[in-house]
Specification:
The structure is a single chain. This protein has 195 residues and is mainly beta. It has a single domain, classed as Lipid/polyisoprenoid-binding, YceI-like (Lipocalin). Helix content is 12%, strand content 46%. The protein is built from two helices and eleven strands. Strands 1, 2, 3, 4, 5, 6, 7, 8, 9, 10 and 11 form an eleven-stranded antiparallel β-sheet that branches. It is elongated.
Length: 195
């Protein structure tokens, strides 16, 4: 067999092996997010007082089998321009460069890398959180509850806003706005197999 023939044969073998090793996640249908019953919020502290906010627009690509979490995947895309705390002046500031810099970084993303069981109806989701051009590996505890054909995934985790350059310049000082921000979520989904 000549060199070209060997290359073709090797390519075909590699392709067939890749197909044979396709993750089970690809055969699991994607779940469907129910936006009106879902929320992603955050709690920060300004001069020691908790301030609650939320993102009004986000999308989720969830391929999840509770019995095969290791073969599952989750991607969340958040429209950072949709951040609100319900105060007109603050809401107008958040899209600007010191905060979310929406013009340059319109989307924050979480993409899972590994999912493992952590008890009845509980899972640990490891992945990469990317905000404002900065990515960090995090582990998110998730609780999954099911009613009929509807599944609700809830959880919370903390981030340090300065790690993601949220609040630059004079706002990097944590005496006014605390460094720690608590992120909490509720994702209501259809199309997930029973626990």
């Amino acid at each position: 067999m000549n060199r070209a023939g060997s290359f073709v044969a090797a390519f075909c073998l590699a392709a067939s092996l890749a197909q044979a090793q396709t993750p089970a996640a690809r055969s699991t249908p994607a779940a469907k997010l129910v936006p009106e019953q879902s929320e992603i919020g955050f709690v920060s502290r300004q001069m020691g007082v908790p301030v609650e906010g939320r993102f009004r627009k986000f999308a989720a690509n969830v391929v999840f089998d509770p019995k095969k979490p290791e073969a599952s995947s989750i991607t969340i895309n958040i429209d950072t321009s949709s951040a609100t705390i319900g105060d007109k002046d603050t809401d107008a500031e958040m899209p600007k460069a010191p905060w979310f810099a929406v013009a340059k970084f319109p989307t924050a993303t979480f993409e899972s890398s590994a999912i493992k069981p952590a008890g009845a109806g509980k899972f640990e989701v490891a992945g990469k959180l990317s905000i404002k051009g900065v990515s960090q590996n995090i582990v998110v505890p998730v609780a999954l509850a099911q009613t009929g054909t509807t599944s609700t995934a809830t959880g919370s985790f903390a981030i340090k806003r300065n790690d993601f350059k949220i609040g630059e310049g004079e706002w990097a000082d944590t005496s006014m706005v605390a460094n720690e921000v608590q992120v909490k979520f509720k994702l209501t989904l259809t199309g997930i197999a029973p626990l």
